[in-house]
Amino acid sequence: MLQDIIENNKKYQPGLSIDCVIFGFHDNQLKVLLIKVKHSKKWSLPGGFIPVDQDIDTAAATILNHRTGVEGIFLRQFATFGKTKRNENHFDKETLEKLNIPEEKGTWFNQRFVTIGYYALVDFLQIVPDSANTHDIVEWIDHKEVPELILDHKEILEKALDCLRTELNLMPVGYTLLPEKFTIPELQKLYETILDKKLDRRNFLRKITNIGILKKLDEKKNNVAHKAPNLYSFDKDKYEEVLKNGLNQGW
Amino acid sequence: MLQDIIENNKKYQPGLSIDCVIFGFHDNQLKVLLIKVKHSKKWSLPGGFIPVDQDIDTAAATILNHRTGVEGIFLRQFATFGKTKRNENHFDKETLEKLNIPEEKGTWFNQRFVTIGYYALVDFLQIVPDSANTHDIVEWIDHKEVPELILDHKEILEKALDCLRTELNLMPVGYTLLPEKFTIPELQKLYETILDKKLDRRNFLRKITNIGILKKLDEKKNNVAHKAPNLYSFDKDKYEEVLKNGLNQGW
DNA sequence: TTAATATGTGTTATTCTGACGCAATGTAAT
DNA sequence: ATTACATTGCGTCAGAATAACACATATTAA
Q1: Would you call A82 and B50 a contact, using CB atoms and an 8 Å cutoff?
Q2: Smallest Cβ distance to B14: which of A14, A79, A83?
Q3: Per-residue pLDDT reduced to its tens digit, A147-202
Q4: pLDDT digits over B175-202, tens only?
Q5: Contacts of residue A168 in chain B, CB cutoff 8 Å?
Q6: In chain A, which residue's Cα lies nearest the Cα of B60?
Q7: By CA distance, what is A84's nearest residue in B?
Q8: What percentage of chain A's residues is helix, strand, coil (to nearest 5)?
Q9: C-beta of residue A44 within 8 angstroms of C-beta of residue B12
Q10: What gap in Å lies between CA B27 and CA B186, rounded to an integer?
Q11: Which domains does chain A have, with CATH numbers?
Q12: pLDDT given for residue A180 in this prediction
């Protein structure tokens, strides 16, 4: 990819990039898929550039697919970042040398990049970080333990989480984050983790079932400590309908 | 501006622009500030390009200020648009000739442009469309009577309105759209116009006053038909507080 | 067998919402 | 002047939604 860009500047939209905040849920933790590029000490959000002949939404889906292997996943553009100094000194002389980028080609990287942020909600278990494939280290990291990131990626991540929290009040969330069959307590943990606050079990159950997007299965989760909780799945039709119409009208 | 870009490509971020949806409220109508460029039959959203040494938010504020003369106004980035063909054929050979742009310079305009959408809420009465100043025709147009627009500007406008409607449920709106003193019925009309639906007078009053952002003034509106309504103003401190914390928690 | 933990279901008081009644104020028509 | 009409201000009431909490059940660990 990098090599392609160095050799074929013209194929990519100049000064513009995409960064993806890929959320997963596992072990009651909200995880973020981060990568560490060769020669870099800091982690970063998976991102990429935009072919001039590709819609930006398509480019984002491509990047997501490239990193996770999944397709057709929930992906949402949430904000665009363009502070003048956001990528200043990122590709300095030393870095360019390390990466074997000739200096005259390096100017392409040294312009100010505006980056479009997308966040994705994926099923943790379906994604196996495949470091070998991309020559980068790819890892799921608990969002509470995200280390220092390059550039303004921490700010981008925070903003994504912020948007996700807001969206939680406007639409149902979980379909793409949980496995097909799940329990109400699991769903509640997801909500609690995203919102970073405790919710009342009984009130949560009532509210979430009232939305009408859940199907109670005639099946209990097994191999669990304590009382076996019932399994549920999403009623996809109803789910899509609510996604379209929103949850609370407000006015 | 156009001349500056033609001569100094390098000063501007290539392939990237900003478009502003400027909302105002007057005569019980939600108005949008539109412009018509010389040589164009279609109207368009006021927009501009991004100096490489300017934050995108700053660039948006500059564009807004350039068109309206106002500063420090509510301005929010809401989405970024980047379909491949969105500005295809916009600066075709004929147009370039009309605008006196040499063909080799015209290539700058013919790349795919990604545009960042901002919407602004301004006090209608404070803005006098000044066509003379910009050589373009600038006009307030009722959002229900917006004619055909260039490129995907209609889509951008729709999306802005959509976001505004959603935001209405998350935060108070009106501070920058109404004059300092206003009546509850006026505020209600604003809400009804944005949402495009009727609200119950009495329930609206209860709900809006419960938010705690209004100050009832010891003054009535005069020169009105029928019973004179009371005047209110926003309690700016409380307003800002609610803006920060949001309206409905939901969960 | 008992303690501890987590799930499933129900209750109650309070608040919020939607739908509507009615008196007060001011304009316009007769 | 009197009446009809439109608009505002304030209030009521039933039903829905919400927050806080009680109790029974299932399962494991001591």
Answers
A1: yes
A2: A14
A3: 999 999 999 999 999 999 999 999 999 999 999 999 999 999 999 999 999 999 99
A4: 999 999 999 999 999 999 999 999 999 9
A5: 250-251
A6: A82
A7: B55
A8: 40, 25, 35
A9: no
A10: 10
A11: 2-168 (3.90.79.10), 184-245 (1.10.10.10)
A12: 94
